[in-house]
Design a protein that fits this description.
- The protein is of the alpha+beta class and 125 residues long.
- Helix content is 25%, strand content 10%.
- The chain is built from three helices and four strands; from the N terminus they run ααβββαβ.
- A hairpin with a 2-residue loop joins strand 2 and strand 3.
- The longest helix is centred in the middle third of the chain and has 18 residues.
- About 6% of the residues have low confidence.
- Belongs to the DTD family.
- This is D-aminoacyl-tRNA deacylase.
């Protein structure tokens, strides 16, 4: 169900190798920890000067989606190296970005007739 996302998170080459060359190693190769947080604010559109979240997955579906994703990620990698936040809670996360790099990972849409606005439940692949 989450094969694309899990595979990409574990194998995308974002880190430097032992020689300092960037884009050579993955989380898996480096044996790094992964922190997963649910964050509805990442899925928004601007409506005037306000963010609009009505296209996000409904809360009654999103928690099980998140928990199933975490389960598959842990099963595919290492339960000890996958950390998680509490679903739906306001949290403060201290992060340090290394360089001006942000990568937005979206699953490919399989069927154009199932675009987000027409779906009741998003494509989970």
């Amino acid at each position: 169900m989450f094969c694309f996302r899990v595979r990409k998170i574990l194998n995308i080459r974002l880190f430097e190798d032992d020689n300092g060359k960037m884009w050579k190693c993955s989380v898996k190769e480096k044996n790094y920890e992964i922190l997963c947080l649910s964050q509805i604010t990442l899925y928004n559109r601007l409506k005037g000067n306000k963010p609009d979240f009505h296209l996000a997955m409904p809360p009654e579906l999103s928690k099980s989606f998140y928990m199933n994703f975490l389960k598959q990620l842990k099963n595919s990698y290492s339960e000890d190296l996958v950390k998680e936040g509490i679903f739906g809670k306001h949290i403060v996360v201290g992060i340090q970005n290394d360089g001006p790099v942000t990568i937005n990972l979206e699953s490919p849409v399989r069927d154009k007739s199932l675009e987000r606005e027409e779906q009741t439940v998003p494509n989970m692949e």
